[in-house]
Amino acid sequence: MKTHETTVYLPAEDIKRANRLLRIPSLEELTEKQMRRRGLEKFYEEGLYQANFDDGSFLTCDLHSGSNNYWDCLVWYRDKEDSGTPLDCWYEIGDLDFVLFGERYIVHVKKAS
What we know:
By secondary structure, the chain is α+β, with helices and mostly antiparallel strands. It has 2 helices and 7 strands.
């Protein structure tokens, strides 16, 4: 199996903040005041990173929220013309290791210095 591996660098504060949001079990149990105080938003979207692989494919990782919780939206693209293949949520910003179309893809997420 062919393996494609890449590394992305994110500010440590961004990783910590995203993981804190991803660990919130339910936004429905919080009052509007509690949400404002914690800086939480429903129906939120933020691009976190794009990981580029040696075969021309790439993965985007966005942070989303709905009425219930936050999740990581992971989409792999064969190339810039591709409409994308959504991956399962990991609910944590960290290293990824997945197989698509018989090939292995690894993303190392490192703290930027």
